[in-house]
Amino acid sequence: MSVRPEQTSVAPEAGTTGFRRVLLKLSGEALMGGRDYGIDPGMVEPLASEIALVRASGVDVAIVVGAGNFYRGLAAAAEGMERATADYAGMLATLLNALALQDALERAGADTRVQSALSVSEVAEPYIRRRAIRHLEKGRIVIFAAGTGNPFFTTDTAAALRALEIGADTILMAKNGVEGVYDGDPRLDARAKFLPNLTHLEAIERGLKVMDTTALSLCMDNKLSIHVFELADGNIGRVVCGERVGTVIQTP
């Protein structure tokens, strides 16, 4: 998580938040820090502390985490692998991140449950929608692992699906190193323009790298908004408070 000296974590006060229930989508790279792959505790611990503060304010929090920090290390082995097999390997990698995030959240004082779309009963509960909702109602943070449990679907699609299933008010997409959505890659093109507002259809038609088209279409059909912002210290709390940060994607 990139940290700026002038920023401090924002803990929403009870009753002042902009949302009742949110789903936070984290990339695997968010847990990687400056490493080539794996998990950097120096990144995970402040991130977990901020999420725990948001939960303590009274907002229900669910999380879907990707696997880029581990699967990048397996990229060479994945060359030539059957797509379905490679996708299942990626789902298992998300479970590693979910367990690491659970440990950090519980050390930060948050009661947490991991639910997996693949059966791994020794370390995680199976995904059961009603049970997930009950955990949220009891004030627990729920981490959804293993994507949708099906190959050919990304964790973006899993985030959209789970958000709709649990009745989340919005999806929070925390990005590394970018303030929101641009019409190009700001790291490669200095002329790339920041886009503060978009509709789901515009994001699809313009081919913007926000979420995959399946996830965007699912959100568009169900009018589920997406807040895209930089994973900087305090930003999760600011967005949950209703402060305008990054890009908002919504269909009127």
For the structure shown, list the relevant keywords.
252 residues; 9-stranded mixed sheet; two-stranded antiparallel sheet; 36% helix; 18% strand
Q: What can you see in these coordinates?
A:
- The chain is of the alpha/beta class and 252 residues long.
- It contains 9 helices and 11 strands.
- The strands form 2 sheets. A 9-stranded mixed beta sheet has the order 4-3-5-2-1-6-10-11-9, sandwiched between helices. Strands 7-8 form a two-stranded antiparallel sheet.
- Strand 1, helix 1 and strand 2 (60-65) form a beta-alpha-beta unit.
- The protein is globular, with a radius of gyration of 17 Å.
Q: Do you know the CATH topology?
A: Carbamate kinase
**Separate helix tally:** 9
- In the CATH hierarchy, what is the superfamily? Acetylglutamate kinase-like
Total strands: 11
- Lateral arrangement of strands in the main beta sheet: 4-3-5-2-1-6-10-11-9
Looking at the overall shape, the CATH architecture is: 3-Layer(aba) Sandwich
Query: Would you list the SSEs in sequence order as H and E?
Result: EHEHHHEEHEHEEEEHHEHE
Q: Based on Cα principal axes, name the global outline.
A: globular
Largest sheet: 9 strands, mixed
Query: What top-tier CATH class fits best?
Result: Alpha Beta
Helix content: 25-40%
- How large a portion of the residues is in β-strands, by DSSP E? 15-25%
Query: Which blocks of ≥5 consecutive residues have pLDDT under 50?
Result: 1-16
Oligomeric form of this entry?
single chain
The radius of gyration is 17 Å
Separation, N- and C-terminal Cα atoms: 32 Å
Helix-and-strand structural type:
alpha/beta
Total domain count: 1
